[in-house]
Amino acid sequence: MRRTARGRFAFAACAVLILGVLPLVLVVSRAVRTGGAFWDTVTGNEAWDALLGTLQLSVGTTLLAVVLGTTLAWLTTRTDLPWKGFFRATLTIPYIIPPYIAAVAWITLANPQVGFVNQLLGSAVLDIYSMAGLTWVLALSFYPYVFLTVRAALESADPSLEDAARMSGARTWRVLKDVSLPLMRPAMIASGGLVFMATASAFGAPVLIGNAARLDFLSTSIFDAYASGLGGMAQASSLACLLFVFALVPMLLRGAHHAVLTGKASRPTLVRLGRARRPVQAAVTLFVAVGILIPAAAVALSAFLRVAGDLSPGNFTLQNFDVLREPENTRAIFTSLGLAALAATAAVALGGLIAWLQIKTRRRGRHLLSGLASLPLATPGTVLALGLILVWTRPIRLTNTLWILLIAYVAKYVALAARSIGEGLGTVDDALPEAARVSGARGVFLLRTIWVPLVLPSIVAGWFLVFMPAFSELTMSVLLVGGDTKTIGTQMFKMRDYASPTSASVLATVVLALVIGSNLLLRRLSGGRYGV
């Protein structure tokens, strides 16, 4: 038994080190080995412009996302706001929609020449091609990190603290400032760190909006350096080291917490909004409409237009959907579906093993193994992709193949599967597996008859949690694929940036339908335990 556990641990450790850790080590090593060239790159004007642009974008997006997410979390948990069930469901939708899809949506709405809003108002009132426009798009994409985290913190906190403050005569604003905000602060800081890192590593939205606005960011500069050809890898690796520093922010902020009373024995006393109840309801409804529903509808609507921005009746057509019949687009869709399914299956297998070793064994180093498996998830996709190129160029060459994409997706998202399956394993009593072992059950039979049935909902959830982001992944794919290898993300990027915006909207509509449909299916299969 011990020999079997030792072998499984060795296999999982080798897989994690090769898939996720070695690529990151090689990126740093490649950059440092360049010596003076490294310092010339990271201290050059172009690098500083990209670094300052990334900092400005990350700080602005984080502040806006924290304000939006915290306010909405408090309103939907601690007040008598109507329609809270509807708001809690719809406000989490951006969590599962890739930021570059949101960028496509807002370009459709606020393009200064052909955007729907500017067409309706008759002038270039809105211009999405700006730092403010990009900040708005990314804040709308990432505020659910804050909303979900702060909401969970409020739901687990003991409401008697706030009730005691009210009984002492404190008014609503005083309770919010002196009690509720301190309770929310650790969740705000932790989720704000995640937003900061996610913004710094974002590629799709910055390249679609930032390039047109002539804004420089580290993620887009790394792509430009790598795509430039000879000598580009060294420069890209040096810039990747700067971007990798942003991944440390959530780790540094993770320790910012304090003890909160939990195990509450009563429901919180809801703050009565009084006369502000209907205006606040209208404001949140307007936010849902403007921030979520209208952009999604704009993407779907633009898929039916011959000419972008022209809403005249004669401009509507179904011919745009012929793009789905074109061989390269059909191949891209099925390639993404197949890769996402394979990556989800492989991630569930490896993630399940990591979760089992961490929770059901006392093997030394199991927590380190779990932490190393989570490292690629916290690392910008651009950095991980560069590392994978360095690993799989020599002696085994997998660059510009589907295999390297599969490896990238598994490395990036295996932690999601491990987390989900770990939650399920944590609820399983060891008595039943032990009884099966006493009866002679071993190996695959024990796995098939005991472990898998007991944690099947968590396995299904982990599979979908990997499938959804892998299907629409862009940041790593755009660096890893060659001319003959296409995914739905890279095809949409190519169409939006170069070829046909209306065709890109068709593919974006397909992505929206499949991602949202997968989420709804996940919620149904898990009885509402998983999904958003």
Query: How many alpha or pi helices?
Result: 24
* CA-atom Rg in angstroms: 24 Å
User: Helicity, in percent?
Assistant: over 70%
Tally of strands: 0
Classify the oligomer.
single chain
**N-to-C SSE string, H for helix and E for strand:** HHHHHHHHHHHHHHHHHHHHHHHH
Compute the average pLDDT: 83
What is the makeup of the main sheet? none
Strand portion: under 5%
Which stretches are low in confidence, meaning pLDDT under 50 for 5 or more residues running? 255-261
Spatial gap, N to C terminus: 40 Å
Shape: globular
Derived from helix and strand composition plus strand pairing, the structural class reads mainly alpha
Helices, strands, pairings?
Elements: H1 2-33, H2 36-42, H3 45-78, H4 84-90, H5 99-110, H6 116-121, H7 131-156, H8 160-167, H9 172-201, H10 204-210, H11 218-227, H12 232-246, H13 248-253, H14 277-302, H15 327-360, H16 366-374, H17 381-391, H18 402-425, H19 431-438, H20 443-454, H21 456-471, H22 477-480, H23 488-497, H24 501-525
In short:
The protein contains 24 helices and no strands. The longest helix is centred in the first third of the chain and has 34 residues, at 45-78. Helix content is 71%, strand content 0%.
Characteristics:
0% strand; 532 residues; single chain; mainly alpha; 24 helices
Explain this structure.
About 1% of the residues have low confidence. It is built from 24 helices and no strands.
